[in-house]
Amino acid sequence: MGFTNTVLIVDDEPHVRMYMKLILKKVGFDNFIEAKDGQEGIDLYKLRCPDLVLLDVNMPVKEGMEALEEIMQFDSTAVVVVTSSVASRQAVEQSVELGASYYIRKDTPRGEIVDQLDSLINDVWE
Predict the structure, then answer these.
(1) For residues 78 and 53, what is the distance between their CA atoms, to the nearest angstrom?
(2) Which domains does the chain have, with CATH numbers?
(3) Cβ 40 vs Cβ 69: under 8 Å
(4) What is the pLDDT of residue 1?
(5) Cα–Cα distance for residue pair 107/104, rounded to 1 Å
(6) pTM, rounded to two decimals
(7) Mind spelling out the 3-state secondary structure of the chain?
(8) How confident is the model at residue 18 (pLDDT cuts 50, 70, 90)?
(9) Confidence at residue 12, expressed as pLDDT on a 0 to 100 scale
(10) What was the pLDDT predicted at 19?
């Protein structure tokens, strides 16, 4: 499947999903799919196969790490960026072990998030 310019944002907080959309627009994405929990994120990933997933760690119904594991089992080439309010070494290592491409703290300054995502996009699709 070719590049569709589509991002799946999985976060239980609507304002965070909106904030991430604004950031992703800065790096060139314009098609967004939103999920409010890990299970919905898995289901939407399987249905739509977006180019990029931003996946929160702490969510109801199904936690982000469980969702990450299921998405990677479904598609080992998925590009998933884990987002969280906390960035413990253990959480970062676990996300990488499960197949995440990147880990971003939500409180990272907006410009740095843009730079990090831009760098990831250039590494993956250029």
Answers:
(1) 8
(2) 6-119 (3.40.50.2300)
(3) no
(4) 46
(5) 9
(6) 0.91
(7) CCCCCEEEEECCCHHHHHHHHHHHHHCCCCEEEEECCHHHHHHHHHHHCCCEEEEECCCCCCCHHHHHHHHHHHCCCCCEEEEECCCCHHHHHHHHHHCCCEEEECCCCHHHHHHHHHHHHHHHHC
(8) very high
(9) 94
(10) 92
